[in-house]
Predict the structure.
Amino acid sequence: MQNLLKTRHITTVVSLIVLSFVGGVYVGNHNRPEIDKIMGLTNKETQVATKADFFPFWKVWNTINEKYPKSDEVTDQNRIYGAISGLIDSLDDPYSVFFDPEETKTFEEEIAGNFIGIGMEVGIKNKILTVIAPLKDTPAYRANIKSGDKILKIDKISTSDLSIEKAIKLIRGEKGTAVTLTVLREGNEDPMEIKIERDTINIPTLDTELRKDGIFAIKLYSFSANSANLFRNAIKQFVESRSDKLLLDLRGNPGGYLDSAISISSWFLPSGKTIVTEDYGDSKKPEVFRSKGYNIFNDNLKFVILIDNGSASASEIVAGAMQNHGRATLVGTQSFGKGSVQEVVDITPDTILKITVANWLTPLIPDYLVEITKKDSGEKKDPQLEKAVEILLK
């Protein structure tokens, strides 16, 4: 995993993730086994009291030991992991999840940007597992998976009661093996089955192009840990090109690090301007993230951002900030929409908890709503790009 600062913000799909370090909770003394020792907790970390009655929990624990025929095959450690997962399930939140050591390793590989899978971001939309966006040049991309596809089954398993993490675990597997997704696509009456072979996924980040018409285009695929530096280099190329027309394509960009979104937005906003506000409900005051004030462009900059329903979280932060401050014109379709803020907590050296702490963002509505029809796709036309070019060349 990439070496990060102690506190990090990550937006994945519809999730904003913050790394911090906390301990455990005191759970009472009803004949409990040495859970503190099992979980590696210190005395200080177990001193938070609760009024909950843990007698039923320990009675079930002891009943398993006394009556279940294979109780000796389930370690105390795995029981604790199972109990924690059940505790998180009680929140009825698909984005809060406990990762055991194996799942933690997988999560860290994904954040580092290299893993085995099919290469797409998914989220829960209207209580349905939905594709945010396939990543460029991945098995999902080549299999024609589309943003907005509703995944009804993974192989033969219904997704109706699956959390995001359980769905991802089913989609992933060994390199060279296949997974079959049953997908319902908007405009189609019947679901279709798409078989996809798993492969190593390297998450793409950024492409640049100085077009013949003088427009400098940046295609940003994700907000990875290094995207801020890559974007800085892209901005340097843009300045050196002497163009005053900038096109930022965030279509199909499912998000990434919040810090990258703040840094990228700061190239276009004065210091102190609000980029995004996180609403934590009644638990604490909203947190405001502001521009760092790079702000190297004057008001003569012509700036268009492309978005679609695959633009999520960090993409919505950048596009929304530019729209709110009148720095860019948005073209395309409504973005993915509502996200949630998670905090990633180290529970033990090899386990983590990802828990929702806030809600944020509603879908962005572009200034120019432009759809891409099936006919456009068949003829390889891009009316959204055409509209963006028209605006920039006025």
